[in-house]
Amino acid sequence: MSSELNLDYSLLTPEFCLAGLAALILALDLFVDDFRKSWLPYVAAAGLAAVLALSLGWVNKESDFAGLLSVDNYTTFFRVFFMATAAVVALVSAQFVQDKLRHPGEYYALLVLSTIGAIYMAASRELLTAYISLELLSFCLFVLVSYAKHERRSNEGGLKYMLLGAFASAILLYGISMIYGTSGSTFYADIAAAYAGDTSAFDLALLLGLVMVLAGLGFKVAAVPFHMWTPDAYEGAPLPITAYLSATSKVAGFALLLRLFSGAFMPVLDDWQWIVAALAAMTMVLGNLVALQQHNIKRLLAYSSIGQVGYMLMAIAALSAATSSALLLHMTGYVITNLAAFTCIIAWYNLTGRDEISGFRGMAERTPLLAAALTAALFSLSGMPLFAGFFTKFMLFQAVADEGFLWLTVIAVVMSFVSLYYYLLVIREIYVSKPEEGEERLPVPALISGLTVALTIGVFYVGIFPRHLLDVAEEATKLLFA
Amino acid sequence: MQALLDNYVAVLLAAVVGFTLVGTAVIVSRLVAPYSTSNQKDISYECGMLPAAEPVRSQLHFRYYLFAILFLIFDVEAVFLFPWAVTFLNVGKAAFYEMVLFIAILGAGLAYAWKKGVLQWK
């Protein structure tokens, strides 16, 4: 490292503001007695939106904090991404938390704090900083998954998630120590420089390190065979947290993987490329096939999200400038779609208390707007044209095939067809099954209706005008391969 | 790889020697020491009462768990304070204020727990 460090704290202003926001939420919850607890989600969402606007001030600027955290377009992209996601989740949580959970202050504060961890995972350019950020995100999620304290399933899911998460962290740390042992540095750029030359002196330790780093991060993003915690954590967690898990925790894992593998491990591509390709193939096949047998919507979406992780891993296996911008595009489309689906599912659950797939019968008659939006989201997840899922998958698969991974693309296309089947099972319940006698139209809150419409417009926008988002994604990943 | 492993020869030696020493001590004392067992030997001799209730296993109240966690936070803080105290003069003002901020955050955490009633024995 150079002797003079750039300790410009103003680079980290958005995250300081987020920490302040979390403290504000806790203080409001604690000290203002007559403060209406039901306002907390709106305070959180408004704060996140304000910090999001603030972070746009770093567009097209490039700098770093002490060599540890990059503040460039890639970081800015994920700042906006994670804050927008957290704001939507906060809004969706409003009614659910009020009805079903206690301690709303800590809930929203943890949501905001976990966003900081996710952002730094994308921003870090040094292994230990990346690790600490990963832990910050994970710790918040462990608590949030088990937030329904008096429900057995929530505790079970939280405990499994925490034990396996701790195990994964240990493996990741061991891998990091191997990488440090062989390269003599924890900075991505220095690791790449150390691996650029002859690596035959430490080939075995290097391979061990790569395998363990991949296994540790594979746990976090739920790649097969490290996916065992996912269905239980998804099913046990409060519904909005399930949405948050499927969005932020996965995307943050990939943001870290992308910067790490493009920044540090590119010179030893041959050592890890086949491992990631094998993981991607296994993840796609198993996630989508097991999803076929699920009868709970949370577990269905858990396995479908494992399948999605398989598609995303393909981009890491075929790492190049084209695949990484396609990956960012795909993740954006996926998260918008997933949030739209979860908004409908959460609203339906708040109204009826049902989260089994068979419980969605009659949704078309009782809440037509939610039914239409959920159908659009599910079609998008399976990759139908016009919806976001089609174009983002198309770009991703094409970029991967261009890099010579035609066999992976073939598996991905076949598995997309398989996924259509289980999404259609849900749509059949919504539109074909008749509602039971005496079930009337249900009133959907205006906020939820508005959010659903906005997210559905997002799904179509990404599907019909993908060029805009793709330009942004290309800008964001440009520096990774500079 | 070889150089990497060579660094750890000392650790391996220490582990082998450690396990051998402890193992030998345990086994030898087992073999050599005289043994006699009787009920009389199991009761307390001139050091307190016989336990009155069964089972003798004593249970800790669950509430201690929260105190333990709060204690742990400040215990770990000390781990950071000691190396900081040795070097902060060299690093400069930033190090001082960062540590003040860190302690302030921990203090705020304790105040939060206090206000939430964690320290009350209900």
Polypeptide structure, described:
The complex is a heterodimer of chains A (482) and B (122). Chain A is mostly helical. Chain A is 75% helix and 1% strand. Chain A contains 19 helices and 2 strands. Chain A has helices spanning 13-31, 40-55, 73-100, 104-123, 127-145, 152-183, 188-196, 203-221, 229-236, 239-263, 269-291, 297-317, 321-352, 363-366, 368-382, 388-402, 406-431, 446-464, 466-477, and strands at 63-65, 69-71. In chain A, strands 1-2 form a two-stranded antiparallel ribbon. In chain A, strand 1 (63-65) and strand 2 (69-71) form a beta hairpin. In chain A, helix 16 (388-402) packs parallel to helix 18. Chain B folds into 2 domains: 1-34; 60-122. The model of chain B has no long low-confidence stretch (mean pLDDT 83). Chain B is mainly α. The radius of gyration of chain B is 26 Å and the shape is flat. Chain B is built from 4 helices and no strands. Classes of the chains: A mainly alpha (482), B mainly alpha (122). The interface between A and B is small, with 12 and 9 residues.
